[in-house]
Amino acid sequence: MSSGASASALQRLVEQLELEAGVKRIKVSQAAAELQQYCMQNACKDALNPFREPRSCALL
């Protein structure tokens, strides 16, 4: 690998690491609680939820 290609690869790596360093992080417990709350709030809209009340299918 030439030094120019190596330098550009390292520059891309630095840019990626800077991007990842700027990501806001939260605790796993908080993320899990938010995900569980979201799922419970949207369970009635979930087409794959086997426990929701069945609807009749109308074909046009």
In short:
Helices cover 55% and strands 0% of the residues. The chain has 2 helices and no strands.
Structure keywords:
60 residues, mainly alpha, 2 helices, lipoprotein, G-protein_gamma-like_dom
Number of strands: 0
pLDDT below 50 for ≥5 consecutive residues: which ranges? Answer: none
Return the string of H and E elements. Answer: HH
What's the overall geometry?
Answer: elongated
Number of alpha- plus pi-helical segments: 2
Strand content: under 5%
| Count of structural domains | 1
Spatial separation of the terminal alpha carbons: 62 Å
Helix content: 55-70%
The assigned structural class equals mainly alpha
Radius of gyration: 23 Å
Mean pLDDT: 84
The largest sheet, given as strand count, sense and whether it forms a barrel, is:
none
How does this structure look, described?
This protein has one domain (3-45). 55% of the residues lie in helices and 0% in strands. The chain is built from 2 helices and no strands. It has 60 residues and is mostly helical. This is Guanine nucleotide-binding protein subunit gamma. It is a lipid-anchor. Keywords: Cell membrane, Lipoprotein, Membrane, Transducer.
